[in-house]
Specification:
The chain has 4 helices and 9 strands; from the N terminus they run ββββαβαβββαβα. With 171 residues, the chain is α+β, with helices and mostly antiparallel strands. It has one domain: Hypothetical Protein Pfu-838710-001, CATH 2.40.320.10. The protein has an 8-stranded antiparallel β-barrel with strand order 1-5-4-3-2-6-7-8. The radius of gyration is 16 Å and the shape is globular.
């Protein structure tokens, strides 16, 4: 299970260059449910991701309280691919490829911020994701000052949606 929150950012964190970076290319074979292929540096991954049931999502929103976006809660399975398998599946992908650099930034409490800086047709888009061990942990999270608006419930910041648009523009 994946429990995450996404945020826009006010500014890039200081000394960004000190953190590890993954160069990512990904594409989608299906967006509902999500079947994604990804190259992350020299690693190739097939991911199946589905949103938790509507009743579970409603429960998370209720527990979260009014006026605050609920975290995204997904079931997620990742399988390793070979480079050849990735390239074969890439030819079958729908929509557009996404390319981005992901900086992996440690946060308080053992959490990790994954800062995505998009390239190509999504140039200018930057957001950060944090995964949590539980919905409760996501509710008590104190975002660093460089984080801005919580966009966890905004479909415009979902990568599978971004694979369907020609260029980035906030709606």
């Amino acid at each position: 299970m994946e429990i995450e929150r996404k945020y826009t950012i006010r500014h890039l964190p200081e000394q960004l260059e000190q953190y590890p970076v993954r160069h990512i290319e990904q594409a989608y074979l299906c967006t509902d449910p999500v079947i994604r292929i990804r190259r992350s540096n020299d690693r190739y991954i097939l991911t199946y991701k589905s949103i938790r049931s509507a009743s579970q999502a409603a429960k998370a929103r209720k527990e979260n309280g009014a006026g605050k976006p609920a975290p995204r809660v997904n079931d997620e399975v990742e399988l390793e691919l070979t480079r050849e398998g990735y390239e074969h599946l890439l030819e079958k992908a729908d929509g557009y490829r996404i390319t981005k650099d992901r900086s992996v930034i440690p946060l308080a409490g053992g959490l990790v911020a994954e800062l995505d800086i998009f390239h190509g047709r999504l140039e200018g888009l930057v957001f950060v994701e944090v995964e949590f061990p539980s919905v409760a942990a996501s509710e008590t999270f104190q975002a660093p000052e460089w984080f801005d608006r919580d966009v966890s419930g905004d479909r415009h910041y979902v990568n599978s949606y971004l694979s369907t648009v020609e260029q980035w523009h906030q709606e």
